[in-house]
Amino acid sequence: MRFDTPTRGMHDKSMTESGVTPQKKGQPFARVKHGSAVVPIYRGKVHKWIRYTVAFHMNGKRVRRTFGSLEKAKAEAQLIARKIQEGLSATNDLRPQEREAFLTARSMLSQRELPLLPVIEEYLQCRQRLGDVPLLSAVEEFLRRTNGVKMGRTVPEIIPEFLQAKTEDRASKRYLDQLKHALNRFGEAFPGDILTIQTDDIDRWLRAMKVSPVTRNGILRMIKVFFSFAKSRAYLPKSEATAVELLSKVKEGETKTEIFTPEQMERLLSKAPAHLIPIYAIGGFAGLRTAEIGRLSWTSVNLDRRIIELRAGQAKTASRRIVPISENLACWLKLLPREGMIVPDEDRFRQATAYAKNLELSWPHNVLRHSYISYRLARLQNANQVALEAGNSPTIIFKHYRELVSREAAEQWFAITPPEGWTPPRRNVCRRKRLSLTD
């Protein structure tokens, strides 16, 4: 037991001198120690009488006991300090072994300057969420999964990086616009760390969009490409499937393959302005996709060899493809100037749709490509050959296009040519309405 006091002349076996400087206001007059327990004694005047106050905590409350003599105050402080140390006083509701555990825990945390209470709260939250899984096992698994992963990257941070990479890879403007639109919506819904996104969260987001199965599957494909990019940049673990890879496409159901009749196609081409003929003719007589036509320049069209060459970066399937130019397609293309890009302005695709509707022709999805494949299959009776030309699988060709038209209709389709001496009309373009108008 030790007793510290700042005044002279009060020494005994439990008191040590600590200086003669006058007591500062609010500071203890003396301190009684027993082990690690300390009980302060304060000196003051009450109605001109000197009083000594022992202050300590009991049940979370501060307790003050005042005495008229220092000896009595010291004796009380000694008793309280001893009980605190031994863990037997109401001022300390810990048993000796509990106090030892508390002091050990506090010492361990002090090495990392961590407060005890927040550490306990965080531990309990982890245990509640983990259930029967040991916390250490969960931490070890997390470290294994995230080894080499760049932590803390959010979806909005990664989107510009992804779009820049796609731009450098020379993705088409149309595809970039689609990616940007889909990913901006995704980033608004998931603004946090990409590592924390769960499969069921993405599934609920897709379902809440209330779009058609085809549109939903298209968005899902773009999100999958985005997550694949994030994995390649080490923003996600490379050793496991991403949250979006675990989602399956929605069943789209049987789709009706709608096509033009030869009479409708002939009417469309005979009325079309010169700048829209490449879209109609190449789409209807060579079966190229809209995006593929948009990537082509006239140097890919070889009328002498009667072929259109799509390089790997231009075809949807990312593989080189050679498409034959039929005799009637060659007749239409010879009427046109063939320099630069086939479709220099992407707005022309919208004009093509609007112009067909202006002629009271419906414009079903992929109508020109569907028409070509249907008539080409009826003419050749060879699904493998048509699949090779169209950049599709024989299974899809056989399933969706078999026996849609007769062979006679196919011969009529590929006999559509410009009237002799005919010149494509020149039209002014109204961009606001996306229509081609007469001069």
Give a brief outline of the structure:
The chain is α+β, with helices and mostly antiparallel strands and 439 residues long.
How many strands, what sense, and barrel or not for the largest sheet? Answer: 6 strands, mixed
Number of strands: 11
Order of the strands making up the biggest sheet: 2-1-3-4-5-6
Percent helix range: 40-55%
User: What is the string of SSEs from the N terminus onward?
Assistant: EEEEEEHHHHHHHHHHHEEEHHHHHHEE
Number of helices: 17
Low-confidence stretches: 5-22
Shape annotation: rod-shaped
Fill in the CATH topology of the largest domain. Answer: hpI Integrase, Chain A
How far is the N terminus from the C terminus? 111 Å
Annotation keywords:
alpha+beta; DNA polymerase, domain 1; hpI Integrase, Chain A; 3 domains; 3-stranded antiparallel β-sheet; 11 strands; rod-shaped
Task: Give the SSE layout.
Layout: E1 2-5, E2 15-17, E3 30-34, E4 37-46, E5 49-58, E6 61-67, H1 70-86, H2 96-110, H3 116-130, H4 135-145, H5 155-168, H6 173-189, H7 199-208, H8 213-232, H9 262-271, H10 277-286, H11 290-295, E7 301-302, E8 307-310, E9 321-324, H12 327-334, H13 347-358, H14 367-380, H15 383-390, H16 394-401, H17 407-413, E10 428-430, E11 435-437
Parallel strand pairs: 1-2
Antiparallel strand pairs: 1-3, 3-4, 4-5, 5-6, 7-8, 8-9, 10-11
